[in-house]
């Protein structure tokens, strides 16, 4: 009988966001896949979890997936975690989920921490329908993607890094228009969590007035001008 593959969310900031079920699952599996063994090692030590950690990240997931599927077929139960949030959401995990589906492996994703939902809820923008676009392309295809998103009437959720946020905001202004409504959330669940809402021009002014730190969730709606 094949084992079970667990996708286990880990806190995006506050360790108290780790669920009891997540802790128990990690204690019960045969081993744990993670992006960075050092980062995950700190998390496991905090919750007194003693299980083998194996690297599984964007640079080795193609090679590692086959071995994981073999172990699952041999009856081992395996969990995958990332440095923060839910595996597979702008983090490693999709290829493994696809392979698990292709090989009829039982897969369970635990509910838990993710950055996009808290940012969407507190944005004050319509959330009955939304489009999660993750990170924009770095270079090739970036303008094409922005043009495509500019036509979208649903609320859009983007991830961005602090050192690229000013460029991204300026590009949204260029492609979406300066009256576009938006919300910027950073350091979600951490001590200095902060959300700024307003027009894209107001967010540009806010972003340039200070040095933003931490991963950023940008919520944009092009239909409320």
How many extended strands?
10
What structural category arises from helix and sheet content?
Answer: alpha/beta
Q: In percent, how much strand structure appears in the residues?
A: 15-25%
- From the alpha carbons, calculate the radius of gyration and give it in angstroms: 19 Å
Number of helices: 8
| Uncertain stretches of 5 or more adjacent residues | none
Give the termini separation: 56 Å
Global outline: elongated
| N-to-C SSE string, H for helix and E for strand | EHEHEHEHEHEHEHEEHE
The overall pLDDT average reads: 96
The strand line-up of the biggest sheet is 3-2-4-1-5
Helix content estimate: 25-40%
Largest sheet: 5 strands, parallel
Explain the overall architecture:
There is one protein chain. By secondary structure, this protein is an alpha/beta fold. The chain contains eight helices and ten strands. It has helices at residues 20-28, 37-46, 61-73, 94-102, 116-122, 142-150, 165-176, 200-208, and strands at 4-7, 31-34, 53-55, 78-80, 106-109, 130-135, 155-160, 181-186, 194-199, 216-221. The chain has a five-stranded parallel beta sheet with strand order 3-2-4-1-5, sandwiched between helices. Strands 6-7-10-8-9 form a five-stranded mixed beta sheet. Helix 3 (61-73) packs parallel to helix 4, helix 6 packs across helix 7 (165-176) and helix 7 (165-176) packs antiparallel against helix 8.
